[in-house]
Amino acid sequence: MRARLMVVVVLMNLLAAAISGAVIIHKARTATEVETASSMAVVEPLVAETLQAVQDAPLHGLFRTLALRFRGLRHVRVTLLDSGNQPVEAGGRREGTRRAPRWFAALIAPPAQRHEVPLMLRGARIGTALVTAEPSDEIDEVWGYALALGLTGLSLSLAMLAILSLAFGRILSPLAQLAAGLTRLEQQDYDARVGRPDTRELAVIATGFNRLAEALGAARAANLRLTRRLLTAEEDERRRTALELHDEFGPCLFALEANSSSIARIAATLDEPARARLTQRTDDIAAIVKRVQTINRALLNRLRPAGLGQVPLARCLELLVREAARHHPEVVVEGRFAPLKAGYGDLVDLTVYRCVQEGLTNALRHAGAARVTVAVAEEEGSLRLTVDDDGSGLAVDPGEGRGEGRGLAGMRERVEGLGGRLALVPRAPGTSLRITLPAETPEEEAP
Fold first, then answer.
1. Environment class of residue 339 by beta-carbon count within 10 Å: exposed (0-12), middle (13-18) or buried (19+)?
2. N or C: lower Cβ tally within 10 Å for the chain?
3. Pairing mode, if any, of strands 332-337 and 431-438?
């Protein structure tokens, strides 16, 4: 905006300079015509007066006297010709070195004027005075005046532009602060505030911006509280479901396994073919029970990871990485966990665990990677989690907008619900999942 305002001022100065130049040229041209015409009008009376005064002088002396009289004239050049039209003496303004450039002289100079004055002595023509307009001295004077005026105007314009640049910078600086504040709002930094400028109109905008940022911050805080409550309620429900599966479903499966074993022992006392048929059925029941027990353990682990909250977080993550490496021996899976606290709260611990779990699953199933590295560290009050792979990289489907599946969308929802940030960053080769979480979440308000 400052640049555009400066361009407007420069254009106005150029327009003013063009108008002033046109006025100066018009006035100078008119003045030059008047001066030249006046000088040419003086020649004929001067010739008559001189001839009247020196009638008895010899002819050569007469021409010299005329030349001396004409030498004091300005804006004309007089050439004396004898009766045979041969030059004798020259008087008046002699053309010398011009100061004004040719283009300026062409704009100022009047049309060429030439006048012949006969030289009459005692009734006889003794020659001719050839009078030619010579406005170069007047043009030089106008050029000097125009040059001085132009340099003065240029100096004043440059000084004015410098002052206006500083003034515009000071006046428009609140707009730069407002733009920076909007950028921070776009980055979800709702603590952004701008100072109140002296300009009343900008002060109104700054006040509105600060109110908007405050309202957005309050809305975000309310959303975060609601999201944490939803996550807490979801995890409580998962915990209760896992407890019921463990306490109710587990004993029932154990009872089925025990009854199946009892039936097998009873069948062993029977005769053939009943014994073989019962043994086959009890083996089928035992296999089904084992299968259901395996499914039940997997459900329990998905609902609530075993040991989370009872053993240190780093240990749970190491076991998770080790289990992933066991199921995918063709991939090198590494875990780098800096010294961490035993726990950071139920929600944070569970979010870190789920993000590592989902990140490993995505890298192992979809990236085609040969190496996957998981790292978790605490830095400046935040937990930083990265999952790096050397696979095929990001494959964004234009039809899906951001190219996120349900697993990644779920991770983003968990992370942002705790006030953290999640980003997928391309690397050469592969992809890096980067997550930042607050090391501690604020305590929930009582509902």
1. exposed
2. C
3. unpaired
